[in-house]
Structure formats: C-alpha cells, structure tokens
C-alpha cells in the first residue's frame, strides 16, 4: 500500500510549517530579483545567460539562512545545492524551463532518492529517526518579467528518482505570492489578458 497524495501533503505541512514554506517562497523571489539587479549592467545577451547561473547561486545562499531562523530546520551547504532538513523532509531546489519539466538528473539527487523512504510502503520496519522523504522544489523564471519566478512546485520523489506526487507551492500561499509579484500591465506583450493570477485562483479553488 503506497502513500496517498493527501498523506504526503499532510506530512509536508506538518514537517515544514507554513512560516518555513513562506520563507522559502520569499527566498526564491529574493534570489530572482537580486540576480536580475546584479547582472543588468551587462549587454542583453550576456545578462540573460548570467541570470540563470546567478539565480542558482543566490537561491542556495538565501536558503542557507533558513537554518538560523527556524528551530528544527537545518540548511546544509553541499556541492551544487543547499539541503534543507525539517523533521522527515529533505528538500533541495532545482530550476526548470516550465512547470512540466522534470528535474535534471544529478548523482547527488539520485543518492538522496535512493536513501529516502519507500513511497510504496508507508510502514517501514523498523522505523528510524534517519528516515526521510526526498522532495524537490522546482521553480522557473517568468519570461515576461525575469525579475521573478512564475512557478514553484514541490515534488515527492521515489527511490528510482520518479515523481510520485507534486503540488503547487505558490497556490498554497496565494496571498503572499500576489504581494511579491511585481505589478505590471493587465495585458501581456501581445495585448492578451494576463492569466497568471487567474490560474492561481483556479488552482486554489480545486
């Protein structure tokens, strides 16, 4: 018998409380804004290429501060990433080109996944304080406004590095996300209505 989607989301909510989730969202927005500002003096092409790299480094740095702010949360600086540990949850961040993209493969991700709890068996025997769920926050840039992210999802990953369940982190904290988004025209560059907030409203209502 495997963990249900409802059980996994309840575990995440219990082990990563809302203030920590909201701090992760703020870290993500801060990383995008800082990266944009730090490279804007370069020509357009070079700035575009540098932003992704700078966002990656800045988000790692931002997330490391979570361990100092929340009791029970540790943020370890590891090669190529920051590892957040909060009770049974292990969380890393990974960028993606769009919400449907899979996380890029890497040996450290495979190692975390291989050592994580078996999502097909919710009753490990015997249980250990070292048991954990491996999760990845996948995030991506807003192509219309590169100073901010357009999405952030939490993925629960199996031992075989397959996505077992995912949920929209932004939709969970819609009021916060709306307050962080940079205001711009209600129409996009083609004159069409901007649907970002509508999509979040629809996600929240489901």
- Tell me the number of structural domains: 1
From the N-terminal CA to the C-terminal CA, the straight-line distance is: 26 Å
Largest sheet: 6 strands, mixed
Identify the strand order in the major beta sheet: 1-2-3-4-5-6
Strand content: 15-25%
Rounded average pLDDT: 87
SSE order: HHHHEEEHEEEHHH
Give me the count of strands. Answer: 6
Radius of gyration based on Cα positions = 18 Å
| Helix-strand category | alpha+beta
Net shape: globular
| Spans where pLDDT lies below 50 across 5 or more residues | 197-206
Helix content: 40-55%
What structural keywords apply?
alpha+beta; globular; 6-stranded mixed beta sheet; 206 residues; 8 helices
What does this structure look like?
By secondary structure, the protein is of the alpha+beta class. It contains 8 helices and 6 strands, in the order H-H-H-H-E-E-E-H-E-E-E-H-H-H. The chain has helices at about 5-15, 20-40, 45-65, 65-70, 105-115, 170, 175-180, 195-205, and strands at about 75-80, 80-85, 90-95, 135-140, 150-155, 165-170. The longest helix has 22 residues, at about 20-40. About 25% of the residues are buried.
């Amino acid at each position: 018998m495997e963990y249900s989607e409802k059980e996994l989301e309840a575990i995440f909510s219990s082990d990563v409380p809302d203030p920590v989730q909201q701090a992760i969202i703020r870290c993500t927005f801060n990383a995008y804004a800082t990266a944009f500002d730090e490279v804007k003096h370069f020509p357009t092409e070079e700035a575009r290429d540098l932003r992704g790299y700078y966002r990656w480094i800045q988000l790692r740095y931002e997330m490391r501060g979570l361990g100092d702010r929340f009791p029970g949360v540790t943020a370890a600086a590891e090669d190529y990433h920051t590892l957040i540990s909060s009770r049974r949850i292990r969380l890393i961040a990974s960028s993606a080109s769009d919400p449907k993209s899979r996380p890029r493969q890497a040996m450290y991700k495979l190692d975390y996944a291989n050592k994580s709890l078996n999502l097909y068996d919710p009753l490990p025997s015997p249980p250990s304080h070292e048991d954990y769920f491996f999760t990845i926050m996948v995030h991506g840039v807003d192509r219309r406004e590169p100073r901010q992210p357009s999405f952030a999802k939490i993925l629960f990953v199996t031992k075989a590095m397959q996505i077992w369940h995912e949920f929209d982190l932004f939709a969970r904290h819609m009021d916060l996300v709306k307050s962080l988004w940079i205001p711009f025209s209600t129409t996009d560059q083609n004159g069409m209505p901007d649907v970002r907030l509508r999509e979040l409203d629809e996600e929240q209502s489901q």
